[in-house]
């Protein structure tokens, strides 16, 4: 596992993931300070956690799906739902799933109709809060309204 320097793109190795469970990691996602990983190394794919201090890998559970390719994970903090896009089955059916972080179980949500091979990852942004309008805008607006009203009075 590596960290990437945003300024120059250099990589610094943190540690080796020696666990057989941590082979073929297809998705990583930080959720409330915990690093979750999807391993496609075995018959049924597994949800894991990785301790960033020690590199210890903890098995959570199998997804119940044997993915041919998993495109990535994303967590929506507004709803608490973790998503996974992946291909499975003989024909490589592309689908979107939700992941249970307690059991590892994947629940099919919808078909993605052939786009998983075009996806490099998933992303869910933080909840966007409304940006307050600056007080100066309100002051300017009330000043203009006052000028309009004063102009009507003088007619």
How would you summarize what this structure contains?
It contains one helix and ten strands. By secondary structure, it is mainly β. The model has no long low-confidence stretch (mean pLDDT 75).
Please explain how this structure is put together.
With 155 residues, this protein is mainly beta. The protein is 13% helix and 39% strand. The protein has one helix and ten strands. The chain has one helix at 135-154, and strands at 2-4, 11-13, 25-31, 34-39, 46-50, 57-62, 67-76, 81-88, 93-99, 106-111. The strands form three sheets. The chain has a four-stranded antiparallel beta sheet, with no helix packed on it. A hairpin with a 6-residue loop joins strand 4 and strand 5 (46-50). The N and C termini lie far apart (76 Å). The mean pLDDT is 75.
Shape assignment: extended
Strand order, sheet with most strands: 3-4-5-6
The biggest sheet amounts to: 4 strands, antiparallel
Count of helix runs: 1
Q: Mean pLDDT across all residues, rounded?
A: 75
Rg:
24 Å
Could you name the ranges where pLDDT drops below 50 across 5 or more consecutive residues? none
| Proportion in helices | 10-25%
* Percentage beta strand: 35-45%
